[in-house]
Write a structure and sequence with these properties.
The chain is built from 21 helices and 13 strands. It is α/β, with parallel strands linked by helices and about 500 residues long. A 5-stranded mixed beta sheet has the order 10-9-13-11-12.
């Protein structure tokens, strides 16, 4: 890497010594060659650099919103007030399969517990551990499957043309939500005439309801690194940056350990590799905002074109692919396009009102009913498909829907990254929508007005709906404005869950 040191890692090193001081920021700015004002912009943009004292934070995600979120939050506020500790909420940690979760934050240090209940909070206030530690997802949350078992020995690089042709023949698409054909991205970066190219692994899984990438990074990171190395050689890149969501500290350690293991084996020879701790915001998952974050800037989406394949990290051609996508590329190289296409594997994060929440490898085309049966769903009333940036499906109407790329899209839905959050007839779906809309309002980066102004208004309208002030016409108008006017997918997808609830459940909720 010919560029100067990166800002966020330097700030993280300083943070280990205590709260950031002006001298720390000034030193980091000098080392990176950034103006001091730009370094301060980053410090004020990323939440972890503002952390000071102790805080007790309830994790806010759709499953707990449908259950006892209000009572848990009230209990937390009560015990925290009595203990003289600040309390509040923080968004999804990928723990929907474990139950309500609590984050105990002390400056830059975090301890995570799940599941917790009101008795857990009383124990915390008394100075005891509030519940089981949840630094890593349990390995047993996932069953068998190509992606969920110990990976085979890393395959030899078959050559750029052969690998890209195999990805095309396998029908491999991006599995972070957009479902763009992988071979097209590979070919686009390969075609660039540049001496310096990058591969960036997008491990910033921040959308509530999704935790399959977290499981992969914690329990099968070698498979992801293998795919990234194959992709780098196919496009002519000399460097791989693995960007891991900032809150996934256990995943960060496992990803780094796998990098060292593969490097020692010689598999990464000729490639410069590094693991990068993400900025800790949902917008960091947008591919161009992720690149801005690595460069030490505010994580704001870039205008396109140019696309990352032409001008990505530090202005160089860059392949950005999701964690699961690169794991699949390794499987295609190991097993061949025909075997892969016959199996059609896809990971799904299933949580909510099911007997066995967890990560499931299912064949694309598995029906919704079959997926719910595999996880032990009972009398499900609704499924939030795709995650927070998803849509509500009504059951039993949608039971036969194939979970693939085409069938949901034909009716205005998408499997997205692969989340299924299941709700039975006792759950308040508008409480879920209220939490989802609050999430998008909080996570808007502020770059474009339709999103930065529209998402708080969306939250207020949903909040009012739950309390009897129902304005469906305004919700529909706002949804259209967000979709058509927002710069990136955050604002465009923000109203999808609410709009689907209006269209498919509004009589049920009157």
């Amino acid at each position: 890497m010919n560029h100067k040191p990166l800002l966020l890692p330097l700030l993280d090193e300083a943070l280990k010594r205590g709260p950031l001081e002006p001298a720390d920021v000034a030193a980091a700015a000098r080392a990176t060659g950034l103006p001091a004002a730009a370094a301060w912009e980053a410090v004020r943009f990323y939440p972890r650099y503002a952390a000071t004292g102790e805080r007790w934070l309830l994790v806010d995600e759709p499953v707990v919103r449908s259950r006892n979120f209000d009572s848990l939050l009230n209990a937390l506020e009560r015990v925290a007030l009595a203990a003289g500790v600040e309390s509040g909420t923080v968004y999804s940690y990928g723990l929907e399969a474990l139950g309500p979760a609590l984050v105990v934050e002390q400056g830059a240090e975090r301890r995570v517990y799940a599941p917790v209940d009101e008795a857990s909070l009383e124990r915390l206030a008394a100075g005891a551990e509030p519940g089981p530690a949840a630094g890593l997802l349990p390995r047993e949350l996932a069953g068998g499957g190509w992606l969920l078992e110990d990976p085979p020995p890393p395959p030899q690089f078959p050559g750029a043309g052969e690998l890209i042709a195999s990805a095309r023949a396998a029908g491999l698409r991006g599995l972070g939500g957009a479902h763009f054909p992988v071979w097209r991205k590979l070919e686009a970066v390969r075609a660039q005439d540049a001496a310096e190219k990058y591969v960036v692994v997008n491990g910033d899984e921040s959308e509530p309801g999704n935790f399959k990438d977290r499981w992969l990074m914690e329990h099968n990171p070698r498979l992801v690194w293998t795919g990234a190395a194959l992709a780098a050689r196919a496009v002519g890149a000399s460097e791989i940056v693995f960007y891991v969501r900032g809150e996934y500290e256990g995943a960060l350690e496992r990803v780094e350990a796998a990098r060292r293991e593969l490097a020692a084996s010689g598999y990464l020879d000729g490639l410069e590799t590094s693991t990068f701790r993400g900025g800790g915001l949902y917008i960091c998952g947008e591919e161009s905002a992720l690149l801005e974050s690595i460069e030490g800037k505010r994580a704001e989406p870039r205008l396109k074109p140019p696309y990352p394949a032409e001008a990505g990290l530090f202005g160089k051609p860059t392949l950005v692919n999701n964690v699961e996508t690169l794991a699949h590329l390794a499987l295609v190289a190991s097993h061949g396009a025909d075997a892969y296409r016959e199996r059609r594997p896809k990971l799904f994060s299933i949580s909510g009102d099911v007997a066995k929440p967890g990560v499931y490898e299912l064949a694309l085309g598995t029906t919704l009913e079959e997926a719910l049966a595999a996880a032990g769903a009972g009398r499900a009333r609704a499924v939030l498909l795709g995650g927070a940036a998803g849509t509500f499906l009504k059951l039993p109407d949608a039971a036969g829907l194939p979970l693939d790329f085409e069938a949901p899209r034909a009716q205005g839905d998408s499997i997205g990254p692969g989340a299924l959050m299941v709700f039975d007839e006792t759950r308040d779906l508008w409480a879920v929508a209220e939490g989802v809309s609050a999430f998008f309002a909080h996570e808007s980066c502020g770059k474009c007005f339709p999103c930065s102004l529209g998402t708080p208004h969306l939250h207020r309208l949903v909040w009012n709906w739950r309390r009897g002030q129902r304005r469906p016409e305004l919700l529909h108008e706002l949804a259209q404005a967000l979709e058509q006017g927002s710069l990136c997918g955050l604002g465009q997808a923000a109203p999808w869950a609410v709009r689907s609830l209006l269209e498919r459940f509004v009589e049920v909720n009157r």
